[in-house]
Amino acid sequence: MTDHVGVIHKNAVMDSAPPRPLWSVILVRPETMTFLLLILAIFAGGQLSPYFLDVGYILDSFTLTAELSLLALVLTLVIISGEIDLSPASNMALSACLFAYALSFGWPLWIAVLVGMGSGMIMGAINAFLIISLQLPSIIVTIGTLTLFRGLAQVIAGDKSIRLPEWYIGIDKIYVLGLPAPDMIFIIVSSVLALILGMTIWGRQIYQTGTNETSAQYAGIRTRRIKAILFISMGLTASLAAMIYVSRLGSVRYDLGIGGELQMVLMAMLGGTYIFGGRGTILGTFLAALLLSVISTGMTTANLLPATQLCVLGVLLIISIIVTNFIYSRTQR
Amino acid sequence: MPDGTLQHPVICATGISKSFAGIEVLRDVDLDLQRGEIHALLGENGAGKSTFAKILAGVHRPTRGTIDVNGSQADISSPIAAQRLGITLIHQEPLSFPDLSVAENLVLGRIGGSPLSGVPWKQMVRDAEALMQLLGVAIEVSRPMRGLSIADQQMVEIARALASDSRLIIMDEPTAPLTPKEVETLFTIARRLRDEGRTIVFISHRLEEVRALCDRVTIFRDGNKVITDTIENLTDGDIIRFMIGRPLKEYLKKQDVTIGDIALEVEGLSKPGYFVDINFKVRRGEIVGLGGLVGAGRTDVARALFGIAPAMEGTIRIHGKPVTIHDPSTAIDLGLAFVPEDRAVAGIFRTLSIETNITAAVPNKISAGGIINFFKEHGLAREAVQKLSIRLASLRQPIGELSGGNQQKVILARWLLTDPDILILDEPTRGIDIGVKAEFYDMIGELAAHGRAILLISSELPELLALCDRVLVMSEGRITADIPRAEATQETIMHAAVPRSIEGRAA
Amino acid sequence: MIQKLFLRREAGILLMIILFCAFVGIMRPRFLTLDQFRIILLLVPLILIGAMGQMLVITARHVDLSIGSIQGLAAMLTALMFKFHPEIPWGLGFVVAIGVGIILGLVNGVLITAFGLPAIIVTLGTLSLYRGLTFIVSNAKQIDRQFVPAALKAMSQDSPSYAVPWIIVIAIAVALAAYWFANHTIIGRQVYALGSNPVAAPLRGIRVNAVTILVFAISGALAGLSGILYASRWGFVNPSNTGTGFEFQVIAAVVIGGVSINGGIGSIPGVILGVFLLGCVSAALPLLGIPGTAQAAIYGAVIVMALLIDRSVRIRANSALSGLQRGHA
Questions:
Q1: Residue of A17, A19, A220 with shortest CB distance to B23
Q2: Local confidence pLDDT in tens for the 507 residues of chain B
Q3: Touching check for A328 and chain C: CB below 8 Å?
Q4: Which of A56, A58, B84, B290 is the most buried (most CB within 10 A)?
Q5: Side-chain half-sphere CA neighbours of A39 within 13 A
Q6: The dihedral of CA C88, C91, C97, C100: what is its sign?
Q7: Is the CB of residue B21 less than 8 Å away from at least one CB of chain A?
Q8: How far apart are CA C230 and CA C246, in angstroms?
Q9: β-sheet with B313-318: strand ranges across
């Protein structure tokens, strides 16, 4: 009765469908689409302006979207686990305001950092509590908290612009190994998250939770803990991103990062993350972040109005999910 | 019983074939259905009877072949087209709109009337009540569908079929969740419909019911139609032989196993609304069956034991020590394993690889310090596949591409890797055809022989009788019987399974 | 019995309104005057109209995040027509606004049904797309008061007598139409059916794609209507302000009103009460000395609280019903 593994048993025509060839598994996936688009975009950019072929230029312009890219990385994990979080951009704004206020009171940096990180984590924990303990749907909860956090930022900061101390400004001017510091941070975080997602049990369990939460629970996987950690990490990342953001801008208002929800989700979708959970990679989001940076810079260089850029992003979002869904539905039988 | 052979058939199917993604599930089926008959479709899971019925009902379209309805060729392109032709399918789990009222469920989707026309509420309610009376069923038509028992939901579906004046009503495994009383009500209605000249197609596994109700029988096997004949011309032995292609192997021989100490002991386990005062023991090497009707609370007890939905009161003792189990990982650490009832919902990760599925419950065995050791994982998976004879093309492929039986084997493999002392199996052979069922029975027997304690929840009486040392029966949340192997028969089990309060309830 | 539970839900919202008004009224007696009531009424018509559309979308198990941008784009196109073609009768503005809304809603509906995409992401995309278009067509410039026809503005004027401003009449008419649609048309009931069990719907002869596209078209149409009424109410149209945040206010009202995110459940009266409650809250803020900047925060908190209430009601309902079910089998 024992069959040699790997050989299709003759009567087993109803036992399983034939497997996909290896080349198909490696190449026919959303990340390839992202990669090709990236090459295309750089090429098109190069046509627009010679600066595009200067690596330094591309790296410098990436700093403009580095913070949102960081958020997109962790958001990818959240989406793979089967949830969604639209609040990080507002979280970032509120953390930034609190952080900036702390510094402006003259408090030492480490206390301000604690304040910033603490508030980010608390906001993440609020999401976690509502979504996981109270089992409310994440889409509506995070729409509620995004409104709430942004509103609180508005209450706290009013219409004012909070200025940061001189010594804190200019993180994007610091170069580490030839890269601007924000880029470096992004690369480090991407690498760490990619390793976690691809090579650890914890990462594997994120995929399992997103593929079928009930099956995961029955298999002894602590899905609630995993999701809670993800939401809190999202909050923490938002506060870290906030601290980078304000160093780059030099001042902060309550409307920091407004509209960032769209870009975060766009990066995740362009990177091939499946909105219904269970699929996606850090590599994809990484490439998508680069892609979006090139596209944004390209649009600005081409003197497109911010409004037009907004339209382009909206259309891109729709097209990216169409293609991703298409690829996933075709390769699954 | 009217002699239908001289009349014009209401349905004449010729050469029906169907393939899904290159896999042929029906091959050249010819079948006639007469007016005024109850016609059974028998066959194992995957034999094609459900697919054929769905083709008649417009859910699938045949890859080849033609269907004549009332003498003229018909293209049953969708469920609505089928309804227009007078064909209605009553699903195994009745499809309904839980948030709408019963009356609305009866009306919605009926052909006719422009979309913007007003909803004639009063008329609807009156019509609905009339239909309920016709069936002799007492369901309040203004209440929402949510919360109705399965039997009542079926009644509503039948009422729908009548309301659209269906000439052909197909019932897909309708009796599984019903009490005997409800089954009798269903049969009475079916007979009445037949006497009115309608045709009923009855898909079932249960020979006794088919014999009690049906006029003719068609048997499917491996996608082919094997035979159509009147029920009197076939003995049970004939039927089984046609269904599985070989004489039924006697599974009554059971290995002699030394029964050891008590591995699992449950005392006074209660969860109001689900089960009350559950007491039992399972020893090493013992296979204890848990029988009863759907809804009796057996799966709830299992879920309580495994920590998914813990009980409110009571004690659980594992190897003599009292334990509290609040989540599955605790249960696993204590040596419990649970193969759930519905593998699609609670078992498999459909898009993930077979390897990932097999090792899902033993992260510690395939990792060091949190980092996965892919070689080890592959090795463990290969071993499992060989041991359980899982038929696949590649360990890398997504588990969703395997057949039902092989998927179930993967789930079993997953739990065997945890080396459990106590194994809870919930309907482990559901949806698996008879060849693989035999393999499972052997495997379960072997597991017991190796000293594991097994709690087998099953609705299939032959299965319980074949495998178990003792059979517990639950009814309405309580244990109503503890029957040793020697005294266990289909009657004794069924007797204990039927709720006392239902006896004498008006239909 | 669920009917009773829902009457309880609507009664619950009514109770919250009464309690809230009593609470505020104790601190600021001015709150309980008829004048104040009119102020509240004037705050809500736009949200009410938007909520009627959103309610249908959510009942069908989708969500429409683009209504704010539809309001903006429809308002802007209409206002541009007023500015550059003042010879066209202003009443045609309604046709333009609603027409634009329908088209934008159809785009949403078609994308969702043709490609099987999740509504949340599609409408997130069109939210940006439509907002961007609003900027483009207006050259990022506001349309000022003098270009908006006086007659249109008059529709919102709070007349000194007790005559009800037209804008409120329109809102009430829309609410009544929505009620009729949801409860007394076959296709309205199909929307509930679709949300209640999307799997069963096609097998029951419901044309899923058609119904889905329809609800998004209605949502768009009503958002467009709210666009021209924005011009009526505020007297100007601004590409960055008109409609921004509208979707959140509407969703807050719908969620308070008892519409379930899972579809199939929800009543028009409940949503109307939800809108009214939000109106009371908005009106109370200035009286209580809470700055306008806090409004967003309050809406966010309100959404979260409504979800909590919704959940506890549903849990109680489900356990009651499953108790019933146990009793059967």
A1: A17
A2: 444 445 678 888 888 998 876 677 888 899 999 989 999 998 776 678 888 998 998 888 898 999 988 888 888 888 888 888 889 888 877 788 888 888 888 877 664 556 666 777 788 888 888 888 877 777 888 888 887 877 788 888 888 887 778 889 999 888 877 777 788 888 988 898 889 888 999 998 777 888 889 999 999 887 888 888 888 888 877 777 777 665 445 555 566 778 888 999 999 999 988 899 999 999 999 999 999 877 788 999 999 999 999 999 999 999 999 999 999 999 999 999 999 988 888 999 999 999 999 999 999 999 988 899 999 999 999 999 999 989 888 888 889 888 878 899 999 999 999 999 999 999 998 777 667 788 888 899 889 989 999 999 988 777 888 899 999 999 888 999 999 988 888 778 877 877 654 333 333
A3: no
A4: B290
A5: 5
A6: negative
A7: yes
A8: 11
A9: B275-283, B262-271, B313-318, B321-323
Q: Which two tokens stand for residue B506?
A: 């008006």
3-state secondary structure chain C: CHHHHHHHHHHHHHHHHHHHHHHHHHHCHHHHCHHHHHHHHHHCHHHHHHHHHHHHHHHCCCCCCCHHHHHHHHHHHHHHHHHHCCCCCCCHHHHHHHHHHHHHHHHHHHHHHHHCCCHHHHHHHHHHHHHHHHHHHHCCCCECHHHCCHHHHHCCCCCCCCCCCHHHHHHHHHHHHHHHHHHHEHHHHHHHHHHHCCCHHHHCCCCHHHHHHHHHHHHHHHHHHHHHHHHHHHCCECCCCCCCCHHHHHHHHHHHCCCCCCCCCCCHHHHHHHHHHHHHHHHHHHHCCCCHHHHHHHHHHHHHHHHHHHHHHHHHHHHHHHHHHHHHC
Hey, what domains does chain B have and what are their CATH numbers?
4-244 (3.40.50.300), 258-335+421-507 (3.40.50.300), 346-419 (no CATH)
- Which chain C residue has the Cα nearest residue B84? C205
Contact C125 A310 (CB under 8 A): no
Inter-chain touch B115–C265, beta carbons under 8 Å: no
Rounded (10°) CA dihedral C186, C187, C188, C189: 60
Domain ranges of chain C: 41-243
In this structure, CATH architecture of domain A29-330:
Orthogonal Bundle (1.10)
Neighbours of C276 (CB within 10 A): 22
Ordered strands of the B72-74 beta sheet: B23-33, B11-20, B64-69, B72-74
- B115 and C190 within 8 Å at the Cβ level: the answer is yes
Write out chain A residues lying below 8 Å of B423, CB-based: none
CB contact under 8 A, C311 and A136: yes
As for the ipTM of the complex, it is 0.85
Residue ranges of the domains in chain A? Answer: 29-330
Chain C residue closest to A305 (CA)? C136
For residue A204, give the nearest of B308, B372, B406 by CB distance: B372
> What are the DSSP calls for B167-231, one per residue?
SEEEEESTTTT--HHHHHHHHHHHHHHHHTT-EEEEE-S-HHHHHHH-SEEEEEETTEEEEEEEG
Min Cα distance B438 → chain C (Å) is 31
